[in-house]
Each structure stands twice: as C-alpha cells, then as structure tokens.
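User: I've been trying to design a sequence by hand for this structure and keep getting stuck. Would you show me what you'd pick, starting by listing the structure so we're on the same page?

Assistant: Good idea, let's start from the same input. This is the structure you sent:
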C-alpha cells in the first residue's frame, strides 16, 4: 500500500523517475503518433534581471509534431507546455498528462499540433547551478525564465505565434506572464494550479523556510559541496511532500502509523535520489519577485484558469483567483471540487481531471481567432 502511494505522489510532485515516459513507450512501439524530438538551443550573452550575465545559456527541449504556417508564414499550431518547480519537460511526458493529451484524437494530438516542451533554466537538461558553477550561477527569476523560453520559441524553433500556452504550477505563473509580456503572440492561455499575485502569506513562508534551511545547513558550504547536504535535502523534500499531496488520499491509503512511516521513509529516499540542493534552492527562490496582478488587463487571449480545492499551495478560501480573474478581459476561473479524482496541488498533472476545460478553451479561442 505504501509503495503504491510512493509512486502516486511522486508523480504529483513531478520528482519521480519510475513512471515510463511517452518517449520510452514510443520506442517500444506502444505509442502511436509523431516521435518526440529532443534538442538544445544556446542563447549567447544573456543578461539576467539581477545584472549578471552568462556567456551561454542552454535551453533543452522536446517537441512533437511539425509547425504549420498560414499564408503569411505565421505559425498557427504551436503549443508551449511549461512544467513546475524542480520538474522538467519529462514530467509532462507521463501517461497521466501526455498520455491523456498528445495521442491520436486527443485534445493536443501531436499529429495536429506542434508541441514544445522546454526544460526551464535551472531545471532538467538546461543550464543550471549543478552543471559546475554551483552558487555562482546567476540568480535567475521568472522574468528571466520566460525571456529564455521566448528566445527558444522565436529564435531556436522559428515559431512566431502560439496557439496555446499551458502551464502547471510554476508554469501556471509563467502562463500569466506570457499573456502579459507577449499579448499578440498567443491565442489562448491555460494556467493550472497557481495564483496571479505576489508570492506572500503561507506560500512565501514555506518557500523561505526551504531556502533558509538549505543555506543554514553547514554541509551546504555555500554551494561548494561534493556530497549532497542531507539536512538541506530533508527540509526540501519534507515541505514538497506536505505542499504537494492531498489529505484525502493520504488518509485513505495510509490508515496506520506504520504505513505512514514506511511511506515517508521510502518516499524521501526516492525523492532525494536525483535532487541537487542548490538547483532546488534556485528554483524556489526564482519566484521572489513574481507578481502579474497589475498587468492582467493587458492579456488579450482567452484564459481558462483552473485550481483544485485541495491545493495546499493555493488554498481556495483566500478568494484570490476569483478576484484576480476579473481583471482578465476574456478570463474564466474554475475551482475543481476536492474528490477522489483530485490530487492536491499535483492535480495539475492529472489531465483527465480538467481536460474538459481545455476543450472548452480550444473551442472558444478557435472561434475568436
């Protein structure tokens, strides 16, 4: 029972590696449709918001399908899909996400759409502190992250227009920023599991606890460690586990003290196996100046904004989502009722739970083009 929960919630947190990706299934002949293509695009002499500069920033990406252009040469079928904090593009290739959306006849059928799934800076196979610079790596923020995504899309892949930007968690926040910064370059936005306001209250507190916990671990050594600092990883995974899970599932699947303790021990081992403390510190700290609230009125595209009621990070009782979506000209907010089908904050990755709203958005924005 505990082993089942390890797999289940690691997916929700986008940190597990045990679930087979769509790419692997395609290689085994179990999946149909266009094969994924991976690549790297290097942005030279990139200037970060902090004032720091990096000679080369590598952006790794996966694509499915082929771009289609209209009579004027503008791309009309490109979809940008953005992952969450500490994840990577691979987390969106899992059966519960890509397996529900990317296949033949599905909503984001890869034979119809050109799907772009990047690893954000600081994540996956893109440039990150653990590549060698450690804590000397530039202190990137969300503005830097979407600027690099934009460079990849426009210059790296030659895509000048996006049919859709869909983002989970951190990607949800990036989606709002895309709509504000590039209002004429996107037809529709689907932010999943975030709030379009400054990171404050409990959301900021738990992030600051993680940041301070990593920095205060003597074994972190200002990022110059040769062995991962145990206490730093412990506090990071402890908070991820609480923030990303749903109490209903935990109570049902771990009904005894022994089951809960075993689940915790085994889950922490799995979650920390491939985690780097400095990479995680940077990823969490990147949200420090996020606040799209003042510019939400600049968004031109239809927005389908979806949260779940059992989300620890974005609790519905705050009423923030309902208030802020009113600033978006063509915005709609959906709050999914907590149920056996929702998975706390990790609901954003379970596409079957919210795909009906994606269909509604695609239908609506197709008419409005």
């Amino acid at each position: 029972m505990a082993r089942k929960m390890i797999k289940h919630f690691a997916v929700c947190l986008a940190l597990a590696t045990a679930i087979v990706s769509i790419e692997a299934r395609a290689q085994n002949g179990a999946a149909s449709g266009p094969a994924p293509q991976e690549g790297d695009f290097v942005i030279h002499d990139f200037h970060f918001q902090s004032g720091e500069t990096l000679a080369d920033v590598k952006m790794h990406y996966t694509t499915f399908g082929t771009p289609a252009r209209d009579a004027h040469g503008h791309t009309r079928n490109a979809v940008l899909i953005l992952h969450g904090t500490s994840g990577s593009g691979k987390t969106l290739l899992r059966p519960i996400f890509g397996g529900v959306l990317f296949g033949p006849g599905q909503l984001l059928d890869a034979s119809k759409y050109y799907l772009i799934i990047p690893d954000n800076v600081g994540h996956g196979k893109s440039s990150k502190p653990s590549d060698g610079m450690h804590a000397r790596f530039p202190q990137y923020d969300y503005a830097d992250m979407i600027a690099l995504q934009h460079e990849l899309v426009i210059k790296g892949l030659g895509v000048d227009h996006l049919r859709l930007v869909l983002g989970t968690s951190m990607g949800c926040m990036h989606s709002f920023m895309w709509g504000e910064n590039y209002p004429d370059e996107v037809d529709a936005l689907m932010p999943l599991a975030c709030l379009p306001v400054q990171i404050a209250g409990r959301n900021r507190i738990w992030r600051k606890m993680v940041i301070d916990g990593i920095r205060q671990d003597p074994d972190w050594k200002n990022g110059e460690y040769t062995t991962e600092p145990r206490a730093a990883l412990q506090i990071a995974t402890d908070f991820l586990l609480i923030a990303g899970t749903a109490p209903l599932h935990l109570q049902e699947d771990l009904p005894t003290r022994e089951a809960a303790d075993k689940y915790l021990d085994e889950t922490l081992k799995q979650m920390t196996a491939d985690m780097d403390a400095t990479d995680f510190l940077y990823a969490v700290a990147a949200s420090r100046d996020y606040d799209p609230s003042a510019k939400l009125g600049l968004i031109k595209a239809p927005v389908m904004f979806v949260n779940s009621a059992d989300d620890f990070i974005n609790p519905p009782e705050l009423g923030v989502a309902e208030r802020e979506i009113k600033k978006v000209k063509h915005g709609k907010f959906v709050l999914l009722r907590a149920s056996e089908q929702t998975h706390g904050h990790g609901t954003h990755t379970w596409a079957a739970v919210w795909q009906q709203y994606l269909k509604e958005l695609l239908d609506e924005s197709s008419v409005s083009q």
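That's my pick for every position. To get oriented when you compare it with your attempt: Confidence is low (pLDDT under 50) at residues 1-31. The domain at 2-202+284-368 is CATH 3.40.50.1820 (Rossmann fold).
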